[in-house]
Amino acid sequence: MANLIYSAIASLDGFTADGNGDFDWAAPDEEVHAFVNDKERPVGTYLYGRRMYETMVYWETASTGEDQPAVVRDYARIWQAADKVVYSSTLDAVSSARTRLEREFDPDAVRRLKKAAGRDVTVGGPGLAAHALAAGLVDECQLFLNPVVVGGGTRALPAGLHLELELLEERRFGNGVVYLRYRVG
To answer: Could you give all domains of the chain from N- to C-terminal order, each with its CATH number?
Structure first.
């Protein structure tokens, strides 16, 4: 059975985007990007809400030419090789290969997906992750905390949810980012 992993890049005060919806402060440097690539390599399926999909679909057509940094070319190939499931009641169609559109999040369908998957599954975006966390589907949380306080915005973790977590891994990067990996218990 595959693990369902929630991975998020967040500010130190716990937001994935600031009050204006901006997240330019979260752009990883080469060291962090290479580490993210290694964490994403075993992923077979990405679960996205509409907004996260609209952000990530960039990687479908991202240049993989020699003019791009190696970490960017590598991530584009990783993303393109994975299956994607987009949950949206408003999106008309998806524009990437290996992608299917679901109109609503069905916890039982995700349980079946986890059971059948030969590779890990990730849930991207804090809104969709909140549903998966509340349904008890998430096996791991991976947080990349950036050395910035944005004061408000989109929370990385939902309010009102209590989870017991076990620290499995931690890493500090030269740019001040801290990676924390937890098992949800």
So the answer is: 1-43+132-185 (3.40.430.10), 45-117 (no CATH)
Contact 43, 3 (CB under 8 A): no
Tens digit of each residue's pLDDT (9 = 90 or more) over 84-97: 999 999 999 999 99
Average pLDDT, the chain: 96
